[in-house]
Amino acid sequence: MAAVEQAMPATATLASREVPPDPPAPVVNPNPNMEITYTGNTGNDMGISTMGFRSAKFNPSEWQESNYSKYYQSFVDRDNAERAIHESKRTVKEAEETTNRTQAEATKKLAESAKNIEFWKFELNREIQDVIDETDLLLAQKKRLENALRATEVPLHIATDNLNCRQRRLGVDLVQDDVEISLLKEVEIINNVQDLLKNTINQTEKQIRLNRDAKQNLEMDWSDKKEALEIETKSGSLRNHHTNKQFHDGAAKFEEIQSTPESWAQFTHDNIARAEHERMASIQLRTLVDNVLEDTSRDMREQADQVDVNFTKRIAQMEDAKTKLEENLNKVVKQIKDQESNIADLEKAIRDKEDPLKVAQTRLYNRTYRPGVELCRDPSQYHLVGEVNEINQSIDALKQQLNQAQNSLKDLQDNRMGLEKEISVKKNSIFIDREKCLTVRNRFPSRTKLQGYQ
């Protein structure tokens, strides 16, 4: 032990530059192989022995080396303690620097994380606003579709009412003309338009639900980002001197449910991508709605105009027919008047033949009283007989002409009644088409209203 301790002073040096103690000077031992003994008088006259004072005693060199070992051990312990203090200070300093550096890096990472969250939060907020704006525009289109669908009820009622009114036409005027065909086509077009508008409304409602679902996902993600940003900001602003900190055993671990930076960013990117997809679909649907409303309003308006044109033509045709019927009626009335005058002349002519017939027959009758041979078939007799026959033939001819004239008059009167009835039918048809139908068709919605703007 002493040999080891004597070898150490070459390397042991205090941090304070204190020099280790010098080893003791060697004691010369005259008998190095033997224990030093005292050779003087070991007793006195009184007979007291000194042998007991010598036993178990150390020699001076041992005493010096023992003291040196104490000095050196004290030096070594102090040196070790000073080294420990120095190392502790160095370690404390390094730990402080490492902790500060690591904490600064963690604060920087938290700031970067907060910046990333802020970026995605801004993108989410922008997309949310875009989806809201697009949904509002789609809701406006849905409102237009509903207005347009309600606006089709009036044209359908008008066309149906026109068809029902025209069922009240009489006689031959109850014909399936161009007006009725165009009205039936108008009803078909309106029904098809209503079906198309209803289907488009259903598509719009479905797209609105998809937009709102996408907005809800974005808002939930935005809400999570907002909460995470608050936590990151709070964590990033936390300092050592703050009081709102404490120990949390087990906090320094990785949860199984934790996402990776890639999956974290991909989650929000996918939400935004889905929202953009729905927004693009909504934009396309709005374009489709514009086209549907434009096409349906154009088809209905064009068909309505065609019906009006056919009504105008048909009314003109019936006016022309009525005019011609009235002209023929006037002619027939005039002819009836002439025929009645003719009948009166024939009757007068027949009456005028009565007196000559009476004269001729009376002459013949008077001549039958001629006596004897005077009752002769003389030329006068022949002439009178011929006169009677001639008058009778004239009367028969006149009566035949009278009968024909009366039959003609009856035919003319029947024809007049037929013409008057037909004129009444035409007036009824014109009244229905012009007053009942065209007047109602003036309330046909405008193209703007059919497009859902009103």
From TrEMBL:
Subcellular location field: Cytoplasm, Cytoskeleton, Cilium axoneme
Keyword Lipid biosynthesis: no
Chain segments annotated as coiled-coil in the UniProt record: 78-148, 315-349, 388-429
Keyword Chaperone: no
Keywords recorded for this protein, A-Z: Cell projection, Cilium, Coiled coil, Cytoplasm, Flagellum
Taxonomy, superkingdom: Eukaryota
Region annotation Disordered: where it falls in the sequence: 1-32
Main location: cytoplasm
Pfam family, one: Tektin
Family under the similarity heading: Belongs to the tektin family.
Name of the featured protein: Tektin
